[in-house]
Design goal:
Largest sheet: 8 strands, mixed
Strand content: 15-25%
Radius of gyration: 17 Å
CATH architecture: 3-Layer(aba) Sandwich
Number of strands: 8
Helix content: 25-40%
CATH topology: Rossmann fold
Order of helices and strands: HEHEHEHEEHEHHEHE
CATH superfamily: Vaccinia Virus protein VP39
Number of domains: 1
Strand order of the largest sheet: 1-7-8-6-5-2-3-4
Distance between the termini: 19 Å
Number of helices: 8
Amino acid sequence: MITEIYKSPISDKNSLIIKFCKNKKVLDVGCVGQDKSFNNPEWIHSKIKSISASLIGTDINFDEVLKLNNNGYNIVTPDKLDIDIKYQIITILDVIEHVDNVVEFLEYYSKFLDKDGKILITTPNPFNIRQILNIMLFKLPSVNEEHTVWIDPINFLEISKRSKLEVVEFYWLNEYFNHTKFYWKAITIILLRPLQYFRRYFLPNYAVILKKKYD
């Protein structure tokens, strides 16, 4: 699997999510903190709602959960999830890097996965080429202070084993957003994009697909 990571396919984040969630029973973990607000048409939770067979969201932000439920969404706090309800797809989108204990977190949510279900996780790649440029130009990498961990793709193989899960698919992901500053656009087009396709480990994000491992 380690060798396969280096040559895994490159995908667009939203396209990948829609591919796995279409016509499926979905649990979306950490849906409040996604990269767009709920009234933005690009909010991924709303996109999943429009193409899935059914959707429940969960998040620890109680006030936002109430607000979203008042706007027609079905979202609960994690302690209110029904253990008897199982899901075909569980999405954990740019959330895993915020949690205190990754293995415990995955073990908890894997309880809600049906026998043949899959967990789709997206997260930043700690070795993306932009971090190297940030250090060269600005002396520091770009770091979200709310993150608790950086997870290398190869680390996910060990994390999955400890969580009694297995990595069944892996995808590199393109940028999630368009740069607004001209110099970043120029750098991306002229320098970063060719390097990222030549060495995929320079890409900014990745996705792993996990399934329960049965002995």
